[in-house]
Amino acid sequence: MVAYLARRFLTLLLVMFVMTMLIFGLMHAVPGGPFDQTQQPLPGPAMANVMRKYGLDQPIWRQYLNWLWALLHGDLGIPFEQPTMTVTGLIARAWPITLAIGGLTILVSYVGGLVMGCAAALRHNTWLDWLLTSAVSTVGVALPNYVVGFLLISLFSVKLGWLPVGGWGQPQDLILPVVAFSLYPMALMARYTRASTLEVTYADYVRMGRARGLSERRLTVRYILRTALIPLITIMGPNIPNILTGSIFIEATFALPGLGSYFTTASLHRDYPLILALVLIVAVLWGTCYILSDVAYTLVDPRVRLEGLSR
Amino acid sequence: MSDLSSGQPARLPHLTRRGFLVGASALSLAACGKSQDTSSGAGTKNALGLKLPAGAASAGDQYYVLPFDSTGASYKALDFYENVYSRAPLADQFNIPLVRLNQNYQIVPGAAGGWEQSADKNSWTFHLRKGIMWSDGKELTAADYVETLRYSADPKHAWDFSWFWSGVIKNYTDAVAGKVPTSSIGVKQGKDKYTLVIETEGPVAYIPSACLYTTPLSAAALHKYGSGSYNINPATCVTCGPYTLTKFDPTAQVVLGPNKKYTGPFKPPIDTLVGKIYAGGDMLPRFQTGQVDQLSVTPLDLKIAAKNPKTKALHLYKNPNDFEIWYTFFDTKKAPFDNVKVRQALAHSVDRESLIKSLLAPLATPAYGYLTPGYPFAVEDPLKPYTNYDPAKAKSLLAQAGYPNGKGFPPVKFYWWANAVSNTEAVVQALTHTWNSVLGINIQLQQLDKTTFYARMNKKPTEIQMGFVSYGMDYFDASNMLSVYKSDGRHNWNNAQYDKLLAKGAAESKPQARQEIYTEAQVQLTREAPGVFVFHLLYGYYYAPYMQGKALSKNKNGYDGIQWPGFGATSDSLQGLYVAQNKQKWPRPKPNGIS
């Protein structure tokens, strides 16, 4: 297991290296630089001063090596758009907000989705099944989260005046964004849970277990749910990094000063150090989540073997 | 047997309707705070010792919350001379510029009580008021302006607006290029510490207007901290304006409280300014629920607000803000737009009135020329013969250019970037449809992101054959806006006669003579049609009904609301604005972090 994990993480490091190099090249290849977007283009000497100040007057390979060297020393650089901060400081300030929203979203959506999916499957073809899968989860999948956000604001903030319209600083600020953000993953989770639970419910080994006189509780918890979790782990892999890095729509709708908004502004402003840092975060999260998914398979179903371990 | 496996419905925690309502109400109270029914403060004094006007709310309610949308923006500084394009909300409050702009767009005394041009017209002398103190106990003197302008020219500072004084202040261009020391620029103390002399590269008539942009940093603080960033930290903020920094969080909120050491001449009734920063989202609900006291509205907001019983009763304030024009520009060095008749044909094909009525009303006015009505030296009637809607004339001009009914006219890419405030998507679609149907030509739309658009437009030679773009003024004089079309400027239309007129206008001190020169320049620009001028943007605002004062009344041009330059020390708007008693019971939860 340790050797397997070490190999996977080393591969991840290599992927990171290649990817940052690629992103660095692409950032510089697109038209427009970080200091171009002004009404008046800066005159030559003024622009030269700016480029010198931010090290952009050096050849691109040198800029990349400088960035890499700094990264190896734990320094992600200075964001061009907020030079009074460091990229690390900016992320340290914004990411906890996104993580708080994301963490609660994962909790609400996954617990809610599992309960809904199981309930629907175990009450297959009843009104409860219809309500949970056809109504709630279809609406949840079909409605974009920013539309849900606007609806929630219109109802609970403007019309009823119960909850804040947006912002950050009090516990109640979390309620509407988490509900809006949870709806889609919860609906997705519910549909997958229902499908996989139904599939397992009619599997031969479950019927055999029932014939052997195993209790329904034991069958459900020990066999049905456990096996049904496997496809869910597959969809959790890519979902968790997405949720933990924030939704630009949710953060914009509810005015949350989280990490999500930086994904667009950094690109629009060609803020190279910030773009690289954000790409790194996402890539590391994705890589790690996929590795953890693979490990999770073996925990849920011992029949699954990690590559190399069975040899 | 579990509930799930027994075939019985799952038992979920039961929440009664009453329980839900009680919980939600508690949340509501906690979230919104107590909505204020402001008591009268008329006749009492605010934190700066100013007597509040009749009808004013109490001093504790004299705070004003403004929303700022940070989409596509990030905030680095609070001072003009630290960074211009990324200044945070409520910037430029910690100092007093030499001059200010009043509600009627007149240049009036600021820190300088008076000024005059030298006999040889190559310098200007400003006489500072005495007794304006910085919060660190030092007096505001000419040295603060001198050090600030030298700092702005320092190549190491790499100020993003250094073009502004280049070619204007003596030796400034060379200092920015590192060829001469910053101490050699033409800004110095005169006969005493209250006299500031600005030497120019030649006669420059518009220096007083340009001096709106002389919001100084404290020379002592500048030397101590090495940059103007000291003003984004409440502990190191040094101010000679009526406000001081209380909180600076560039992603959420900027709060300015009263500077109780203020000794300057301009005292605002409002003690606390709050800039709420939102990364996008819909501002209208934030205004309707009282989280902010002001709202900038788009045409779409107006439609929604008109259906709401609360907002539909509000007055819509309209003004041109930074006198922004939206126009189509051409690469005039290449066919087909190197032919003046082609450009004129396109100019005559646009029915500006109808376009505005259907897409932009009431937040735009037709652009018959480059300058917005109300802007210094702007004229309109002499330009209409070159820009009026006349499809027959447009077809005839196109035929004269060698493209009868559009035959032989090459396919053209028309580039644009999305801007919701200016509704550019609908406008470029309408323009393209008009040109293609009236003239029989083939113009195709191509959207770009803003950074790419500007990068390609500004390339020399330009990489955009035809594009839709805006320009808002930098300083309040025709020489600024009209210089966009100077040779080798933003666009590649070169005209020596136009350049001469601009040079002549910039040097001329007599207003009547300047008017004649700039009228001629505008006629020439419009006749040659290096661009098709489409509309001047008007900014629309709602204010909560308790926001009152002279600052919101109509000015002599008929524009109302807070005019450009807004709430900075560069205007008199804050002196004419106060919070009145909340008789309309408009919601007003007090924001966190203010006393």
From TrEMBL, chain A:
Belongs to the binding-protein-dependent transport system permease family. Residues 95-293 form the ABC transmembrane type-1 domain. This is ABC-type dipeptide/oligopeptide/nickel transport system permease component. Signal peptide: none annotated. The chain crosses the membrane at residues 9-30, 94-118, 130-154, 174-192, 274-293. InterPro entries: BPD_transp_1_N, MetI-like, MetI-like_sf. Pfam families: BPD_transp_1 (PF00528), BPD_transp_1_N (PF19300). Keywords: Cell membrane, Membrane, Transmembrane, Transmembrane helix, Transport. It is a multi-pass membrane protein. PANTHER family: DIPEPTIDE TRANSPORT SYSTEM PERMEASE PROTEIN DPPB-RELATED. The keyword Cell membrane applies. It is found in: Cell membrane. GO terms for biological process: transmembrane transport. The keyword Zinc-finger does not apply. GO terms for cellular component: plasma membrane. It comes from the Bacteria. Gene3D superfamilies: MetI-like.
From TrEMBL, chain B:
One of its GO terms (cellular component) is cell envelope. One of its GO terms (biological process) is peptide transport. It is found in: Cell envelope. CDD domains: PBP2_OppA. One of its GO terms (molecular function) is peptide transmembrane transporter activity. The keyword tRNA processing does not apply. Residues 106-490 form the Solute-binding protein family domain. Keywords: Signal, Transport. It comes from the Bacteria. Its main location: other. InterPro entries: SBP_5, SBP_5_dom. The keyword Ribonucleoprotein does not apply. Belongs to the bacterial solute-binding protein 5 family. This is ABC-type transport system substrate-binding protein. It comes from Actinopolymorpha cephalotaxi.
